[in-house]
Every structure is written in C-alpha cells, then in structure tokens.
Amino acid sequence: MDEHQTSAERRASGTRPGPIVGVAVTLVATALAVGLTQAGGRPDHPPAPPPAPVATAPVLLNGTDDAFIQLLIPMNEGALALIDHLAGRPADEELRALLGDVREAHQGELRDLRGLLAAGNVPELNIHEGHQMPGMVTDASLAELRGVPDAEVASRAAALLRAHLAQTVVLCRGEQTAGGSPELRALAGRIQQARAAELNALDRQTGAG
Question: Phi first, then psi: what are they for 183, rounded to 5°?
Fold first, then answer.
C-alpha cells in the first residue's frame, strides 16, 4: 500500500468484519432470576440512551449466559438511576467520589454486556420490567427514597446500593459456574472483583462491617 494513501482510502480498502454468528437461546428460569413480585412507580427522568455496545468477536451464549446479561443490565441501570437521584441530595464528598467511581464502572459494564449480546446475535430483552428482583433498585424504591428526609437519605441509599452490589457478586459466581461463554465468564469474574472492592469501600464510608 502506498504510504501516501489517504486515511479514507485505507478505510475503504479495509476488510469488513464478517457476519456475527450466534445462537438462539431460550430464556430459562435459573437462580439468576428469582423472587418475582410486582413493583410500581415511574422514574424521575426519561432513561438515558444505552451505552454503545463494544464490538467483539462472535460468541456463543447459553441460557445461563443470556439470563445473566438480561438481568444484570437492568440491575446496573437501576443503580445508575439511584446515583443520579443522589446527585441532587446531600452527601459528603467521599461518598460522592465513591458513587462517581461506581457510575463509571457500571457504565463500562453495560457497554461490555451489550457488546456480548450483539456478538452472540441475541436481542436485548427487558424481561424483568416491573419485577422486584433481589438487589435491583426499582422505580418503587426510588419513589420511596424521594420522600425520605435528607438526614436519612445516605443510610437508605447505602442499603439499596449494598444490596445491589452484594447480589451482583452472587450472580457473577453463578455465571462463572454455569455459564457457557468463556468471554462472559471472564467478564463476570472482573465484575465480581469490582463489586467486592465497591462493597469494601462502601462499608468504610458507612462504618458497616
């Protein structure tokens, strides 16, 4: 290739990625999705556009993989909604710094999770909408938090966040045990390590142990 070739020509002559190959998976009832009950309420603001998926090589997802992703996506989105709500409520600077770190990590995880769904040729389905799942920050819990006096916000929010982080650790362990995709099992391991660090930081902030 001529070293003076323009970047546009390079892009035009580059190899196009091959078709994404995946498997059709059936959503199964696993330990990843238990304790369904109805929850009400509406979010404070319209949901933000989902992060753009990160392109990956084709992957094969089994039922556990799919269930894990389809549950963790709304769980992360619920935690982000909680962090957004807390931005307008009183909080000390150390807690705000922790929430900022959690936000950044969760947004990155959403990109990775959606990227794996795309690489597996599996559509994203909000199969848990309206359900009260363990560790999920729901519209109802956010509506309740809106009515809490400022003096109680930090403790109530910490309890919600702690439940979310702890339940994600449980889900990540299940994925690493029963998941079929090596790529997703590796991601679950990284998320589990991140959650453990976030839990430790939260406990230091709140004096819990």
Answer: -65, -45
